[in-house]
Amino acid sequence: MGAIFMHISELSQCYTSSATMFSCTTHLRSMHLATRAPETIMILEDSTDSAGASVRVVSRRTVRPSWSGEATTNSETVHLTPWDLQMLTVDYIQKGLLLPNPPTGDGGESLVGRLASSFARALGRFYHFAGRLAAEERQEEGTVAVSLRCTGEGAEFVHAVAPGVTVADVAASLYVPRVVWSFFPLDGLVGADAVAGSRPVLAAQVTELADGVFVAMSLSHGVADGTTFWHLFNTWSEMSRSGGDAGAERSTPPPVLERWFPGTCPVPIPLPFAKLDDIVRWFECPPVEECFFHFSAERVKSLKARANAEAAGSGDTTISSLQSLLAHVWRAVSRARRLSPAEETTYTVLVGCRGRVKRVPQAYAGNAVVRATARAAAGEIAENGLGWTARLLNRAVASLDEAAMLGSLSSWHLDPRFAYLAGFWNPAMVVTGNSPRFDAYGNDFGWGAPVAVRSGGANKVDGRVTVYEGRVGGGSMGLEVCLAPEALARLVADDDFICQD
Which domain of life is it from (predicted)? Predict the structure, then answer.
């Protein structure tokens, strides 16, 4: 997620352009916020990208949680924490996997039925994601409280086909083709939209390609972060791999569904707005393109060694592999953008609270991330080298100890701040989400490991960098870099960024 936290009163006018604009936080109620879909709908919808690649939606169905083939229901209410509430203003998390073709005869409705069934079993563990967000408006107080009601209404499940798109079109191309965005459901929704229209907080889409399958999920960022997203994805693939054996031993741990609140927080938290729509703001930015870069384990090790050698004597802690790689990205992106030496540039990274906050377990199934931001003049990171730049990131992350994380959380309800791009985005920012620790390539659904991982169009802005584990493992990493077209073209041509040391 690439947004910056703002108080509602600090919002300034959104950026606009006469060119075709890409909307990052949008209201698409005319498309999405209609009446609730029946259990299964057979439909034909076409989506065609600028290159002529077409995606046709064959069917939509509602998948409800089940365990051992039996549907499960739960009437509990999950109150959202400050970590959750501040994310209601951003797009859904969208990540997906490119898989090889299943064995002959296992495609089409057979494949979709198998994946829908295993998805339902995964929802049996994450049953709260089959519920709906609800807002309780208290007009006499001028407040609104948002909760996740475990109604068991289900998640959306989409079956689509793209016979003109091949595995190579997606995996072998340096530039990510725009048709990939059509592989993701619930595009254009933010958490607050889902409340207003009683839309699902979770959806999955299975898109059959000419010679492969793309399996994607969209999950409201108002109820979960990347760690929870991949925990659910890992559970789904394991359920599919087991072939419906209810007695099979699961290596994926069950989620911890109970939310944790600091003692000073009221539960539920009253937001100081008459209605929930008041917290959502439009943001539009100039058109962007994205590339997927692969960094071998050897390349990452080289960058780490160089960063720590250059930064020797400037700190007690070792600069990590990820911090070294992101510093390399920061310097290269600043060159590609041709920033003036005096212009301030920032790099924001997401820092997980699991393992840092004692009360938040690893399997915690909600939001538990904060942001660390490093700042410098573009000339400084160019002149002072990789190690100096990496040390800035290292110090920003190190500053977020448990006390710092809990301090802002405990007082959030007194001065709520939400994740916004409007008014804060600028063309010198870089933001990184996701993590190379997330298990993407281990998601074998029963017929082979993923060929590639990609994300949807949600929250795609100039300066967003998404990091993944590398396909070959061993410390390799993949980066999905989203920039203005001219800057991205210069980054691709930058030998210092692309080539080995």
Answer: Eukaryota
